[in-house]
Amino acid sequence: MTGALGQIGSELVPALRERNGTDDVVASDIRRPHASTPGVQGPFEFVDCTNTRQLQEVVRRYNIDTIYHLAAILSAVAEEKPLVAWQVNMGGLYNVLEVARTNRCALFVPSSIGAFGPTTPADHTPQDTVQHPTTMYGITKTAGELLCNYYYVRFGVDTRGVRYPGLISHITPPAGGTTDYAVEIFYEAIRHRPYTSFLAADTRLDMMYMPDAIKAAIDVMEADAARLIHRNAFNVTAMNFTPTEVAEAIRRRIPDFVIRYQIDPVRQAIADSWPNSIDDSAAREEWGWDPSYDLETTTDDMLKHLEEKLANDEE
Ligand code: NAD
Ligand code: SER
Predict the structure, then answer these.
(1) pTM of the shown model
(2) Are residues 191 and 220 located together in one domain of the fold?
(3) Distances (CA, A) of 227 to 105, 220, 222, 223, 230
(4) Measured between alpha carbons, how far is 52 from 92 in angstroms, rounded to an integer?
(5) What angle do CA 245, 112, 281 make, to 5 degrees?
(6) Could you tell me the CATH number of the domain that includes residue 139?
(7) 161 lines ligand 1 (CB under 6 A)
C-alpha cells in the first residue's frame, strides 16, 4: 500500500492484515510510522510513488500481487500546490500503473467526488456523466480514472476503484481536504468548544464513515470480475449532509455544542463545484455495495470513540 499512513491507509492496513495476515501486507509512505501508529507492527517500507525504482524494488522484493495506491495530494492542498499535486497524483499513478503492468499486480485506486465539476448534475449524480472538474485535484482524479481504464483495456491490468465522498474517521485526521470540517467538528464537540466551519451552513456534500470506506475498498477488489460493467471510479456514498445538519446531530447528543461560520473562499469554491448527492446504484448492482452507517450511527460512533481517545490524550 502506498500512502499507508494517511487517513484511509491507517485503517485499511490493519483491516487487510486481519484478513490476509500481518506479514502479507506491506505498508509504505514517505513518512515514518510512530510507535503509536496503527498496524505499525507489520512490514513497512519508505516508498515515494514518484520514484519508480523504489516502487519496483519493493513490489519485487515482497512478491506483491495487489497494490492499494493511496498516496495523493488532497483537494485544498492541491489548490495551494498545483504542480506538486500534478506530480504526485498523476506522476505517481503513472508509475504505479507501470509497476502493476510489469509485475502483473491488481490495483486499487481511489477517485473522489472531486472528479465532478460545476457542470455535472448536482443531485443524484449519475455514474456516467459530465466530468469537467475545475480544481487541480479533480483534474488529476478524472485523468486518473481514464488512465486506470486505459491500462485495463490496453494492457489487461486489473484496475479497480471507487469515487469516495468525504470520509469521517477518528483514528487519523484528514490532511488538507475540503470535507475535513466533517471530522474537525466532532473533535471540537468533544473538547466542548465551539466549532468554526470553513464551509457555509447549507453546503451539502456526500459523506461516508470510515468502516464503510474500508468495506468498499475490500469488496470492490474481491468482486466477481464477470459482474463488473464498470471497473474504476464507482460512485459510492452513505449519506449527505450540510454543516448545519451535522451540527444538529451533535447538538442532539451534546446540547451546548455551538457551530459558527467563517467561510474559506478557496474551500467553499471547491465544495460548490462538487455534487450534493451522488447515485451509487452501479456499485450496488455490480458488486453489492451496501453501506452500514448513516448520519445518526456515525455521530454516535464518532463521539464514543473520540471521547475515549481525547480522554486518553489528556491523561
Ligand atoms: P491522506 O492525505 O490522509 O494520506 C495520503 C498519504 O500519502 C500520506 O500519508 C502522505 O504522507 C502520503 N504521500 C504523499 N505524497 C506521497 C508520495 N509522493 N509518495 C508516497 N506517499 C505519499 O489521504 P487519504 O485521505 O488517506 O486519501 C487516500 C486516497 O483516497 C487519495 O487518493 C484521496 O484522493 C482519496 N480520497 C480520500 C478521501 C477522504 O475524504 N479522505 C475522499 C475521496 C478520495
Ligand atoms: N475528502 C476529499 C477532499 O476533500 C475528497 O476527495 O479532498
Answers:
(1) 0.97
(2) no
(3) 20, 11, 11, 8, 9
(4) 8
(5) 80
(6) 3.40.50.720
(7) no
Rounded alpha-carbon distances, angstroms, from residue 135 to 28, 132, 141, 182, 206: 27, 9, 10, 20, 18
Beta carbons within 10 angstroms of residue 268's beta carbon: 15
Residue among 141, 106, 119 nearest 231 (CA): 106
41, pLDDT greater than 90: no
> So what's the pLDDT on residue 38?
64
Do 80 and 134 lie in a common domain?
yes
Answer whether residue 2 is part of any domain.
no
pLDDT of residue 312: 81
Which residue of 29, 107, 159, 178 sits with most ligand 1 atoms within 8 Å of its CB, as the best mutation to test the pocket?
29
Q: 217 is in which domain, residue-wise?
A: 9-166+209-235
Domain count along the chain: 2
**Closest-lying ligand 2 atom to the alpha carbon of residue 176:** 7
Query: Which amino acid, 135?
Result: T
Element (H, E) at 29: strand 27-29
